[in-house]
Amino acid sequence: MFNGKLLQLQQSLKSLPGIGEKTAQRLALYILSQNKEKSYQLADSIKDAVDSYTQCSICNMLSESDPCFLCSNTARDSSLLCIVEQTRDIYNIESTQEFHGYYFVLGKLLSPVDGIGPKQLNLDKLERLVQEKCFNEVIFAISPSTEGESTIHFIAEYLKNTNVCLTRLSTGIPYGSNMEYTGTVTLMNALKRRFPI
Ligand SMILES: [Zn+2]
Fold first, then answer.
1. Third-level CATH fold of 4-52
2. Do domains 4-52 and 69-196 have the same CATH topology?
3. Distance 77 CA to ligand 1 centre (A)
4. Taking Cα atoms as reference points, which of 132, 127, 74 lies closest to residue 101?
5. I need a labelling partner for 187 at 20 to 30 A (CA). Which of 40, 96, 100, 122 fits?
6. Of 174, 166, 37, 179, the residue nearest 96 (C-alpha)
7. CB 109 within 8 A of CB 85
8. What is the pLDDT of residue 26?
9. How far is the CA of 89 from the centre of ligand 1 (A)?
10. Phi, psi dihedral angles at 63 (to 5 degrees)
11. Cα 102 off chain centre by
């Protein structure tokens, strides 16, 4: 239905997670019909954030500084490392105030059908981090799904020789669910009750 610049805007919006065809149309028209200053502000804040954020060279978290504010906080518990899939999982876990260690962001889960193999997970970096920082425990806080399970088991095997204690979150997070949508209390309980792999 749309064409030209409006179609271009709609398609850009549609590429965002959770935005379907209709919502993208509605948002595109809204952006064009509201006060121009507000739309420029939106565009500027997207550009500013994109330009200012980078991946932390230690943990891969998206951050304004490198190292990120978590890696550079020496008051955190240096015995614990938590492996997560995405930066958003860190914010989710931090909101429980139950975990005070450090993090490592994988960025992806193993998924051979999508062409994501062990090489894409940057496990050398993880292994170096585990060895250098001498963590006592590495906790897997990964969504329980087929990809999540195979990723956990692959990494556990990969880190076997580091002799670090490997644990995962307790049950309570339903299989196939996404960590992003797990309630704070459920996640808090799952963090408290971990079990060895
Ligand atoms: Zn970091």
1. Helicase, Ruva Protein; domain 3 (1.10.8)
2. no
3. 14
4. 74
5. 122
6. 179
7. yes
8. 97
9. 13
10. -150, 155
11. 14
Looking at the structure, give the CATH architecture of the domain made up of residues 69-196: 3-Layer(aba) Sandwich (3.40)
Retrieve residue 135's tokens. 């963590």
Which of 145, 141, 136, 135 is closest to 189 using CA atoms? 141
What digits encode the pLDDT tens for the residues 109-132? 999 899 999 888 889 999 999 999
Which residue has better confidence, 171 or 94?
94
At 171, the pLDDT band (50, 70, 90 cuts) reads low
Cβ(115)–Cβ(92) below 8 Å: no
Give the distance, in angstroms, between the CA of residue 125 and the centroid of all CA atoms in the same chain. Answer: 17
Instruction: Give the model's pLDDT for residue 194.
Output: 87
Q: Ligand 1 centroid vs 95 CA: distance in angstroms?
A: 17
Helices (H), 60-122: 87-94
41: CA distance to ligand 1 center in Å?
29
Please state, in angstroms and rounded to a whole number, the distance separating the CA atoms of residues 30 and 171: 43
If you measure from the C-alpha of residue 71 to the centroid of ligand 1, how many angstroms do you get, rounded to a whole number?
Answer: 4
Is pLDDT at 181 greater than 80 in this prediction? Answer: no
Strand ranges inside the chain, DSSP E? 54-55, 62-63, 80-84, 102-105, 137-140, 165-169, 194-196
| Residues comprising the chain, all counted | 197
Q: What is the pLDDT of residues 41-98, one digit of tens each?
A: 999 999 999 999 999 999 999 999 999 999 999 999 999 999 999 999 999 999 999 9
